[in-house]
Amino acid sequence: MMGPMDWFWVGAAFGLGWLANRLGWPPLVGYLGAGFVFWGLGQEAGPLLENLAEIGVLLLLFTVGLKLRFASLVRREVLGVGGLHLIAFALLVGLLAMGIGLSSQAALFVGIGLAFSSTVLAVKLLDDRSELNTFHGRIAVGILVLQDLVAIGLMAYAGVKNPTPWALLLLALPLLRPVVGFVLERSGHEELLLLYGLGLALGGASLAQHLGVSPELGALLMGAALAGHPQTAELSRTLWGLRETFLVAFFLQIGAMGLPSNQHLPLAAGLVLLLPLKAGLFFFLLVGFGLRARTAFVSSIALTSYSEFALITSVAAVEGELLPASLSQTISLAVALSLALAAPLNRAVHRLYQRYEPLLLRFERKGRHADDEPTSLEGAEWLVVGMGRTGGAAYKMLTGKGHKVLGLDADEGKLEAHRSKKRNVRYGDAEDPELWERLDLTGLKGVLLTLPDLEAKLRAAEGLRRRGFEGIVAATSYHREEDPQLQAAGVTLISRPFAEAGERLAERALGLNPLEEAEEEKTST
Which residue would you say has higher pLDDT here, 128 or 464? Predict the structure, then answer.
């Protein structure tokens, strides 16, 4: 039953989340603050908050699984960078922990625990910017999954999770794809689809828990069993609101863990000061493995935080009498502060790269990179940036009229779908200033920006105008308040898809614009 304090949790989360948003920070900073406020008032997180937080994390990892490609986990950049960073940072923190008097075993738990990055935060922030399926998004998620697997092993060693021999059955979850896919296709598009997705996430988590494995891994693998299914995008969108609401409880719960004693506050501050070192190590390893400076920078910022797994492993060490209880609270404060700092840092990551680009490029290795972007239009007259539904329809119409078109997108899944239809598409991230600096615009008549993210459209338009491009720059706009920003950035033509769809439907109803062949409706998503 809901207690009176549960209402105050919701009110405080909304109030401080709204205030953080007004100050230019992501709302989750306010949620963390609300947790600290309630801890200061002597209130503890109740069962309702804990249950909601757990469901939120499970839904998040389930939706990550829906977009997961196992090929991205075995990339040399993921295994090499993820493994080397984990070893190097864990050794460094472990040595520092031994320097303050901890035993070697306790230092191991602290070092490895703090080497992990927050999966919840990184995935949420990448998803908010529609970058989960970009090249750098896949690299970051791959490293996070690798870390999570190590975390599960560490918890098993600590006695928190004792996998049974049957735990290997979880690897067989992808074999359920025909069955779960069959039911998914017959679950409709509304509440049944929502319930089915929730049931899959909780079912995978429950199965893993009974096998002695982290329920988070079970939810992730259950989602991965459906990865690539045509209806996963709709399922992910359907779960989005529920997932975001429950994740508020997770951030409240982190803040509610409270502050350590005054004598341990300097230690918490010291741990926070290690974050730039953590980010720098990621950056240099990623560059060393042959990625471009921008990919390395954006990925390293996404991974610059301490993980919720650090809390779990520290609690395990306290229960095993390896760590004093006060140190666990110190780690919880360091984790909370790292999340609060990482959120605004990630929001500004593209502006930061643009500011420090000349310096960062000095560390980039010469030669060909796995994430190289095009420098030539290959004779195209029109450039479509963002090959989703709108961009795909625009591409098809232009090519149908005999124009040469090049499509750009940072989502490898969309690129593969369009390439299977023999369309001229290339990898390109609209927010990357290097793309617009190096792309030869000779012969280009116009650019269509059909991206969902406003920031990406603004950066693309600004990059084109800096190059002196005088052709048409058209962009989609989903909110009228976006229009002045797009016009100021150099957009000359604005399309409002929702409003225009209604107008076109009315035209067809009046017989003014007859419906074309059904083939038009097959435009790739």
Answer: 464
C-alpha span between 439 and 456 (Å, rounded): 17
Given 309, 332, 361, the domain boundary residue is 361
C-alpha to C-alpha distance for 137 and 288, rounded to whole angstroms: 18
> What long-range pairs does 162-170 form, CB within 8 A, spacing at least 24?
162/212, 163/211, 163/212, 163/213, 164/211, 164/212, 166/211, 167/208, 167/211, 167/212, 167/213, 169/211, 170/207, 170/208, 170/211, 170/213, 170/217, 170/218, 170/221
The domain tally of the chain equals 2
CATH of the domain at 240: 1.20.1530.20
316 and 397 fall within a common domain: no
Listing DSSP states for 367-422 in one string gives S--TT---S--TT-SEEEE--SHHHHHHHHHHHHTT--EEEEES-HHHHHHHHTTT
d(CA 277, CA 292): 20
Residue partners of 364: CB distance under 8 A and separation at least 6: 287, 292, 293
Question: Which residue shows structure tokens 């004693």?
Answer: 261
Q: Does residue 356 share a domain with residue 283?
A: yes
Residues 6+ apart with CB under 8 A from 464: 436, 441, 447, 473, 490
- The pLDDT tens digits for 197-252 are 999 999 988 988 888 777 877 888 888 888 878 888 788 888 988 888 888 888 88
Cα 168–Cα 139–Cα 292 angle in degrees, nearest 5: 155
Comparing CA positions, the residue from 241, 353, 257 lying closest to residue 306 is 257
Q: What strands lie across the sheet with 382-385, from one edge to the other? A: 425-427, 405-409, 382-385, 446-449, 472-476, 493-495
φ, ψ of residue 373 to 5 degrees: the values are -110, 160
pLDDT of residue 156 exceeding 70, the answer is no
Under DSSP, the state recorded for 365 is: P
| Residue span of the structural domain in which 281 resides | 45-361
Going by pLDDT thresholds of 50, 70 and 90, the confidence category of residue 522 is: very low
User: What percentage of the chain carries pLDDT values higher than 70?
Assistant: 90
Say if 111 falls within a structural domain. yes
Instruction: Give the residue from 411, 62, 68 showing the smallest Cα distance to 239.
Output: 62
The residue-averaged pLDDT of 455-463 equals 89
Residue 29 included in any domain = no
Sequence letter at residue 361: L
Same domain, 389 and 353: no
Tokens representing 456 are 């990406």
CA 255 to chain centre: 21
Classify residue 49: in a domain, yes or no.
yes
What gap in Å lies between CA 141 and CA 149, rounded to an integer?
12
Task: For residue 419, give the CATH number of its domain.
Answer: 3.40.50.720
Residues 96 and 241 in one domain: yes
Instruction: Please check the confidence at residue 153 and state whether its pLDDT lies above 80.
Output: no
Q: What pairs with residue 425 in β-bridges?
A: 407
Report how far residue 19's alpha carbon sits from residue 29's, in angstroms, rounded to the nearest whole number: 10
Return d(Cα 318, Cα 327) in angstroms, integer: 9
